[in-house]
Design goal:
Blueprint (H helix, E strand, L loop, with lengths): L1 E3 L2 E4 L2 H6 L6 H10 L6 E8 L2 E7 L1 E6 L2 E7 L6 E2 L3 H15 L24 H4 L3 H5 L19 H7 L3 H6 L15 H15 L3 H13 L5 E2 L13 E3 L1 H12 L3 E2 L2 E2 L3 H7 L4 E2 L5 E2 L4 E7 L4 E10 L3 E6 L4 E7 L9 H11 L7
Antiparallel strand pairs: 1-2, 2-4, 3-4, 3-17, 5-6, 7-9, 8-9, 10-11, 12-13, 13-14, 14-15, 15-16, 16-17
Helix pairs in contact: 3-8
Amino acid sequence: MESTNGLSLSSHVFAAERRGFDPAMGHKLCAGVEAGLLPHLHAVLAERGGETVLESYGTGPDETWGKPLGEVSFGAETLHDLRSVSKSIVSLLYGIALERGEVPRLDTPILELFPGYEDLATDPKRKSLTVEHALTMTLGMEWDETRPYTDPLNSEIAMEQAADRYRYILERPFVADPGTRWIYSGGATALVGAILQRGTGKKLPEFAREVLFAPLGITRFEWAAGEDGTHSPASGLRLTAPDLLKIGRLVLNNGICEGHRVVPEAWITASLRPVIATSEGLYYGYFWFCGEAPVPMLGGPVPWVAGFGNGGQRLWLCPEADVAAVIFSGNYNVWDAWVAPTRVWSEIILANLRAA
């Protein structure tokens, strides 16, 4: 293991070369960190075909759901906030529960699943909202997470502080017709999380442990909850980098782990399909971002899918190249936190793929 400028690099040179990468990829990562081009990195982990080709860990200040943790030395056993990468995990959980017949079909009206809000159902537009609208963040209702998550006017923070979080979400005024506009919303994920818990009869951590984590050999995780005890499906999950990478490999294997079906293949296909354009130049599936990146070895831009989280958290997947990567960062509540993880993915990982 080498160390440079606070970044430790585990040697996977032979694996990288065997899997078609430039064996100097790790040194290029370190050079980028030393040059100040890749700040705030806590962990970078990449694999191809199930074999780790890049692994590095740093040291720096961290927090969990906004609570400072001080200076942390990160490693393979360190739990880290996924923030909104949690949403992509919730998507997988919904697909599993749907196959088991424990949650409703995607065309089910949401208000049918939240009894007690009959007054809201008098609005035809509100009554037309479906589970799929929530999964694709096309509810069409006002929601603002552009403010820092330290700001009580941030919609997710306001939801956490509301007397009734689900009424707070469901009574937002409309700014677009359902299904026509993507509006980033942790509230949409909160609805899906509630539907999951009501359908399965289990809290999110319990259901996740049973149907997803245990089959993958994931034994350590945390899932943050609000003051009312409700676990946050939008941003509350904490995993180690290697365990999140296992989930990435599961998705690339179309839901199969070591010969066993964990997630329905039909759900993987449906949830990774670009459904609607985002306001950020990308597309969105069922709690997954969809885009393209240049892969010189493959002759040009190829599709990727990813879970994105505040502060620079990423689970990147490139099915065509069979590559998965996890990036953990500590650049929370900063508008340009996307830059470093995107550069690692595009300029360090995909750009250094040399052979099929």
